[in-house]
Structure formats: structure tokens, C-alpha cells
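Hi R.,

Here's the chain you asked about this morning:
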Amino acid sequence: MIDRKEVIYTINRLRSQGKDDAYCEAKACTHSLSADVWETVSAFANTHSGIILLGVDERHGFEPCPGFDTPRAIDQFVEGIGDGSPSGAHLANPPRYELARLEM
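And the predicted structure, written out as C-alpha cells:
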């Protein structure tokens, strides 16, 4: 499971690159989970995996998003991946995943 030290290292790497990459994508998701989260999940499922940082805004230097609602985002992710109600699933064959909640 990813830890705070690895997240900080990853965010610093993304900041130095100025963009996310094939291993990690940042998603602001300030008000709700964005539709492109599912594109990223599918892309990572077809590679050697990756990290999605929810509540981190690429457009603002990979800073944490003010007002990001972690429990809501986790609920939306679990529902969308198909581990909640099957009617809310966005993916037919969801990959194995881990969730970690880290304060920044």
C-alpha cells in the first residue's frame, strides 16, 4: 500500500515534470469524481498499473484541492468500480485496486 512518503515523492516528481505521466495521474475531483477517472482506471488496468491521486489539482501545481470531500470521493469510486451497487458500475471488468486516505 502507498504511504505518505511515497505520495510526497510522487507529487514532487510530478511538479518537477509539470504534468502527470504514465505511472501517476492527478484528478482534482473537487465537486464529484470526474468522468476521466474511469478512462485512467481502464488505461492503468491495461498496463502495469498506476496511481490516481484524487483531490490533487494538476492545473494548480499539484496542490491539494480546497474543499475536496475524501469520504464522498471514496464512496463514488467504490460505487463506480462496481464494489457498491452493480447499477452504479462504470467498468465491466474492474481491476484490482487499493485505496489509501492520506492527509497532505
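The beta strands are 24-27, 51-54, 56-57, 63-64.

Let me know if you need anything else.
M.
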